[in-house]
Design brief:
By secondary structure, this protein is an alpha/beta fold. Helix content is 36%, strand content 17%. The protein is built from 9 helices and 10 strands. α2 runs parallel beside α3.
Length: 307
């Protein structure tokens, strides 16, 4: 047994106080129970293990990635456990806690400056190019999360856990889109088990590209990259739900104060969207979403900082 064996098998709990009357039952998966406090531990373990198995990552090699933080901490965890060097491209657009967490686990950071702390299409593309340059050095393996299909398989177990924990009694699954690997991985499993399960994906209302709108700046970390991610599979998606950054932040605060659930901004967006879907489905239905990471990653941000 090592630290990587503790990834997964997270709790599923019912929301009690933030869900309005006549809404469907809303259940949330507590992905903060993973070792780094994020669901990204699942994909990090998958992409590194598969790269080892097929020889893309060799002993003594260096892992390279661009990330807003949670993926970086998860890769740092896996690389620390397996003994690889890790070089991360990130930005000041993301919380100080995320950057410090990556560094604490041994990641070497290169930071790309943002426009006033905002997540924009330009920022993501600049980060990708910086990672591409690093990956050209000898002995490097670029995980390239926006294109790496191994990350989808990393979330199949998450879908299987949800199916098992709900005993198949699930009507809808709701989740934000960043790389789209997690929503696709879970949806693939749930729709295989029950084709009628409704899949709703969530994006920032300020950057509604999945719904055919224009890219724009927003402050929901880790999602809404400003273009349709290559791993996005529209055939698995029944609905796209735009959520405003302010509404996502407000819900994150409500989850902490009213439910005792401490999570980040994208988790707040997930719950806002899950409630909207649940209100349409009505009482008697069941909606599942994810609390993707821990609120500890956002203490220095305006989500939780005392004003």
């Amino acid at each position: 047994m090592d630290i990587l064996s503790s990834i997964g098998n997270t709790s599923l709990v019912r929301l009690r106080r933030v869900v309005p009357p006549s809404c469907a039952e809303v259940l949330v998966k507590l992905e903060s129970e993973n070792p780094t406090g994020s669901m990204k531990d699942r994909m990090a373990e998958a992409v590194i293990s598969r790269a080892e198995d097929d020889g893309r990552l060799k002993p003594g090699g260096t892992v390279v990635e661009y990330t807003g933080g949670s993926t970086g901490a998860s890769l740092a965890l896996v690389c620390a456990a397996k003994g690889y060097r890790l070089r991360i491209v990130s930005s000041d657009a993301f919380s100080r806690e995320k950057l410090d967490h990556m560094t604490a686990l041994g990641a070497e950071l290169t930071l790309v400056r943002s426009e006033d702390g905002l997540t924009t299409k330009k920022l993501i593309l600049d980060m990708i190019e910086a990672a591409r340059a690093l990956s050209r050095e000898p002995g490097c393996f670029w995980t390239d999360q926006l294109h790496n299909h191994d990350s989808i398989a990393g979330y199949h177990a998450l879908g299987e856990e949800i199916w098992r924990q709900t005993e198949g009694k699930i009507d809808a699954f709701v989740h934000c889109v960043g790389t789209a690997a997690s929503s696709r991985g879970v949806a693939t499993v749930l729709k295989r088990c029950k084709p009628s399960v409704r899949v709703a994906v969530v994006e920032p209302a300020e950057s509604p590209v999945l719904g055919g709108g224009a890219a724009g700046p927003h402050r929901i970390e880790g999602v809404g990259v400003g273009f349709v991610p290559p791993l996005y599979e529209p055939a698995l998606v029944d609905e796209i739900v735009p959520v405003r950054t302010d509404d996502a932040k407000d819900m994150a605060r409500r989850l902490a104060r009213e439910e005792g659930l401490f999570a980040g901004t994208s988790s707040g967006a997930n719950v806002v969207a899950a409630i909207r879907v649940g209100e349409r489905l009505g009482s008697g239905a069941r909606v599942v979403t994810l609390l993707a990471d821990s609120g500890l990653k956002y203490l220095s941000t305006d989500v939780y900082r005392r004003r």
